[in-house]
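SEVERITY: medium
COMPONENT: batch folding queue
REPORTER: lab tech (J.R.)

DESCRIPTION
The queue accepted two submissions in a row. Attaching both inputs and their returned structure tokens so the on-call engineer can compare them side by side.

ATTACHMENT 1
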Amino acid sequence: MRIGLAYNQTPLGVDTTIDPKVVSSLHGPIDAFVEWDEPETIAAVANALSTFGHVVQLEAVDDFAQRLANANVDFLFNMAEGLHGPNREAHVPAIAEFLDIPYLGSDPLAVSLTLHKARAKDILIRRGVPTPAYIFIESPSDLSAFDRFDHYPLFLKPAWEGSSKGIAEANHVSDAEAAKTRAHELLDLYHEPVLAERFLSGDEFTIAVLGNEPDARCLPLIRYRFDVLPGDALPIMGYEAKWLWDQPGTDFQVLECPANIDERLAARIRKTALGAYRALGCRDWSRVDIRLDEHRDPQVLEINPLPGIIPDPDANSCFPWAAAVDGMTYDELIQTVTEVAWHRVSGKELGVRPLARVAM
């Protein structure tokens, strides 16, 4: 079997570990490449996929479409985050569909919707999946909306970024004037709309979802341990926490897995995560971020159908962590989700990782 591996690699020489003061001010898009993968991650995925046959590595840049067409692959493992624009994560699956090549993961529509935070929330609300109240700022002319919004404090985010791009403590605002100032800064910096949503005060969780209907299930829940952040830090998994403070050798144990919560709350969180997964049409795997409100009710912050899969346990990459607690090695995780996707497109099994592992 020939398996293609589509990816975007962090440019050599780029250092995403910038001084926190620079990050807090967001003086320039210093987080431009945090969504892309390091060579070590790409190599680890390729090694796991080699169990199935020959792996053809295809960096999703330049003439990717032609190279994929020429590669004659039977299946495409897609981990490419894309280059530019609000639909960038949909480019590779759209090309694969055009070429009639089966691939891992959600379809172009689902990937575009999940990346666009406001559109994703609109669908969640319509489907009855709880998510924080929000307003959408597309240009400076929309800033007056903050005067009419009554859900302060707010947290602001660039509308279509991932991997905590643009997520800094300065985005937490307590009144309309501060919201206008910060939103204007984010509009100027990222050149895209800004989502402003009610800031929830409770614990935050991330949930790895694996499989397809009717067998999609949640892996062990992860709770973020905000008590390990610096004493004056805002309790969020922002750029600082994810990419600066969490460094190899720092003993930054920010992930608690399985989450130390009662089963009743855990069941509600799993139900909410699966509701979001289904509402947005995700396939094979995704990671859902959920935070509790002041009543300890779970609410969906966002969903990522291209979850991070860094192989180094010290990197605290959430999906591999949850899989490890569930009893899977890194290779087994990659092979299992490949089996899940192949079964979805072909109705058959590759026979390396039994699909019983993902049954509910």
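ATTACHMENT 2
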Amino acid sequence: MLDLCWSPDWAGDIDGYFAHHSVAAVGVSLRNSDDTSFASQEFFLPTFKQIIDHIRTRTSAPVIIGGSAFSVMPEDILDYCGVDLGITGDGEGSLPLLMEKLVSGGDYKSIPGLVYRCGEGFRCNPPSYTNLDDASTPTRTAVDNYRYFTEGGMGSIESKRGCNKGCIYCADPLGKGRVLRLRSPKSVVSEMESLLQMGIDYFHFCDSEFNLPPSHAEQVCLEITRRGLGDRLNWYAYCSPALFSQEMAALFQRAGCQGIDFGVDSGVDRMLHTLGRDFEVEDLWRTAAICHEQSLIFMYDLLLGGPGETRETLRQTVEVMKELSPSRVGAALGVRLFPGTELSNMVRKMGPLRANLNLKGNVIGNERFFTPVFYLSAALGEDAAQYLADLVGGDERFFLMSPPEGGNRNYDYNQNTLLVEAICRGYKGAFWDILRRISEDGFPG
């Protein structure tokens, strides 16, 4: 594993590695294609391509691309990077199989999840999804986990993979499958315990929604408390407001939960239905009441500007959030279109992209939505960002992607200098909670 994250000279590190090593293949994992922020629209693939191009000047071994970003748009990424091989979905089983075939010279074209160049195009094999209940506990020794922690990260944990929900914009099911695959709670907590032994005591559950199914999340928490780790672990999670109960909130707290980020998207039932969510505003009121009663820190995350959004629905949503009074509200304006999602299919049926007034970003010549394109309802007007800022006003509970005053209300984590400074001063935890705490602490003072 050559981890370039801390490298001030990644080209030099690559040169140094290949000066002393020969390899059968090089795997490159791509986590994100862009920052999915309408405000900044930063596209990461050009930098990834530079790295891959440099690798190919140092070795003739084949490059294999994988990772969650790759799994969403594999053919486009292979074509853009000039690479012939990639693996979609889980790589734990398919990558070793591919390596065996490459080393032996065997036929690899039937390997699950393999994407390979064929003539002028590509062929994609259906992915194979690992049975996580049978998988061994990861050792987490390939990278310097403790350095990631001290530099502002957390111990990232998966308790499951896949998502069986119908949100029209979400790419998670494309990369991880539409069937929930649950890990053994004992394996999950053993992995957390191994990171704790490295000195890492802040964690984040990376599941799409940790509390679904409720019984699995509860079993993970019970295993934490059974091992007596509830007062040593500090963790955060993404959760759904559906099926969240007071008993669950109390169990979460006993197991070390420090905060929950609920993806709620809107405060209007009609918008929730349009976006494919399986809960209603009534669930937001119930969940907020539970969290307030339990003194549980929580954030409601909004995804604004989707199909049917108007200035009135935006106003209603902001007013509902103010009444519900979560610890923080994340307000993201503009919905990134990813190929293969229901929303992207809806947009295609609306007619030519260049004539669609709801589309923003790199629209022309980008019919496959490879580079960032955003859906932002034309009914919001050209001043949508300012209108949202005016609705929020001076309410410090709201994070905005481009707040007029910046500071600790800036919800764009990418190159957030205030976050960097807070982390240098010793703040730990989810970035949204760090921003909440530095505001309440009067930092910077």
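NOTES FROM REPORTER
The chain has a mean pLDDT of 95.
No errors were logged for either attachment.
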